Every structure is written in C-alpha cells, then in structure tokens.
Amino acid sequence: MIEDTHVSLAHGNGGRLMRALIEEVFARHLADPALDTGADAVPVALPAGEIVVTTDGFTVQPLSFPGGDIGALAVHGTVNDLAVAGARPLYLTLAALIEEGLEIARLERIVASLAGAARAAGVRVVAGDTKVLPRGQGGGIYLALTGIGVRPPGCGLGLGRIETGDAVLVSGPVGDHGIAVMLAREEFGLSGDVVSDAASVLPLTAAIAVLPGLRFMRDPTRGGLATVAHEIARGAGRAVELDEAAIPVRGTTRAVCDMLGYDPLYLASEGRVVAVAAPAAAAAILAAWRALPEGEGAAIIGAIGAAAPADAPVLLRTRIGGARTLPELESDPLPRIC
C-alpha cells in the first residue's frame, strides 16, 4: 500500500515505490485484464476493418475545472479524434508525466476519472508508463494517450470529398471549454456558471456516420471553430463561409468573451463535432443530432464556397449583413486549455 501523501522522485526510480504507485493507483482504478504491469508490451485483438491510430497530449491548467478534469479530458480528446475519423475506439495507451510533490489523493482522483471516462466510452487502457519530473517542471501532471480504433474499409470521410455548395454544421454551442478553464484559473477576478462541454462525441458521430452525403467530421479543440474552418479551406481548396447569427454560443460564454475581448469562434470545445455534408444530407444530420441530448443545440452554420482566395479563405457573414475575414489563429488566447 502507498503510505506517502505526495509523489516523490523515488516514485519514478523503477523500484518498490514506483511499483506501488502503478499497482495501487493506476492498475487498481483501470482494472483491465489486458493491463499487465509486468510486461513491456501486450497483444490486443482487432476486428476486421481499417486500423486507425491517434496520439494526443494534455497539459490543461488547472487540473480540474467545471465539467471535468485532465483525466477525463484526456480520454475524451483521444476517443473523439478516432470518432470523427469514422472509427470505433477500442484501446488506449497512457503515459503519465507526474510532477514531484503532486498529492497522491489528487492523482487518485484524476486516474479514477480517466478510468471512468474510458469505461463510459467503451475503450480499454491496455498499456502505460509513468515518469516523475522534478518539482517545478511538470505542471502537476501531463498525460499523453494513444488511441487505436477500427473503421469500415473504404470509409468515405475526408477533406478531399468536400464540394462547393456543401453545408457546414456544428453539433452544439462553441467555446464553452475554453471559457470554463479560464474562469477556473481565477486570473481576472471573474466567476461564472460556464461548464466545459468535455465529453465523448461517439453518440454524435455514430448517429450520422451511416447517413449518405456526410463528407467530413472534426472536433473543434485548440483554435476552435475558426481553426477547423481554416483546415477545411486549406485541405479542400475551397472557401468556407460561416453565418455568425447561426453559430450557437451560450449567453454566459459570449458575455465573458465580450468582457475580456475573446472571440468564441477561436476558443476550444471538447465535446462538439463540426461536419461537412452534401446539401441534401444536411437536414437529416441536423435532425439526428438534435434527437440526442449531446446535440440539442446543433445548427447549420455555413456553406462551402468556390476556390478559396489565399488572403481570405474563411469569411464570416455578420449579424448586421456585412462580411469579414476570419484570419488564421497566430497567438494563443488561452494557453494550456487541453
């Protein structure tokens, strides 16, 4: 049993204390038969289909925020990258870089949250590693996950399938995660009831994956909706035109953005999906999303234009009837939000 109250450098030295940390904190909560803490590698079984792999790192500060923590966020972020690629997530690997001095009780809460999110998403954590960083070098804890999933052969999703006239949709209000994390830092003397949208998007992607006319999906994390729009414009070689009045933003999120000068279109969401679909398919996708609790705020927010001009590939139609260019993000308005 772990008798220490805080992580020390000795918990990363390969000896008894490290073994106790792995077995009593990580393995106990993850509780998967395939998680062999004495093995360097483990075999996994994969069903037929295309194997899809993703890797993501998480450095959010603070470690807990309204609506989640770094543990659940790490699972959701990795699972969501597989989901928007049209895959069914199956396995995760976990690397935990723990700062010396982190409370063992806090680490337990984070690992328990991670394990709960994995079970809820139907994925298994089958391998992992821990390292302990000297005090002042780790931000409490950093997590890096690799996700493995399988999708049907010849999955027809991709930027190359997008055509002029296609509709752009989002599954719900944007920017909530970025503002929730910012308020949790208490840097501006502000408080509010904004809750992160961090969640698995598997219900959203599964609901529309079989619908004809779906071209592309992505989750608008770092850089937000505007960054996804630029990725679409660059990858598809076509302009993206967004309708400001149609983009869902919660009133509390917009109010904080107005006070601090943030643009919610550039702030992260961690439980939303941006989709591009043929015009004839847009209504069916919208209906499928709105039938789910996760998609009740879904909206059609724009369309794909013709060839994208190099100086203005993403255009925002404003509420007052004008238009302005949405530039590509350069500075980081809210660092370490995921």
Automatic annotation (TrEMBL):
Residue intervals of the PurM-like C-terminal domain: 164-306
Protein name according to UniProt: Hydrogenase expression/formation protein HypE
A Pfam family the protein falls into: AIRS_C
Organism of origin: Acidiphilium cryptum (strain JF-5)
Gene3D superfamilies, sorted: PurM-like C-terminal domain, PurM-like, N-terminal domain
Family the entry assigns: Belongs to the HypE family.
SUPFAM superfamilies assigned: PurM C-terminal domain-like (SSF56042), PurM N-terminal domain-like (SSF55326)
Domain PurM-like N-terminal: 40-150
Alphabetical list of InterPro entries matching this protein: HypE (IPR011854), PurM-like_C_dom (IPR010918), PurM-like_C_sf (IPR036676), PurM-like_N (IPR016188), PurM-like_N_sf (IPR036921)
Gene Ontology BP annotations: protein maturation
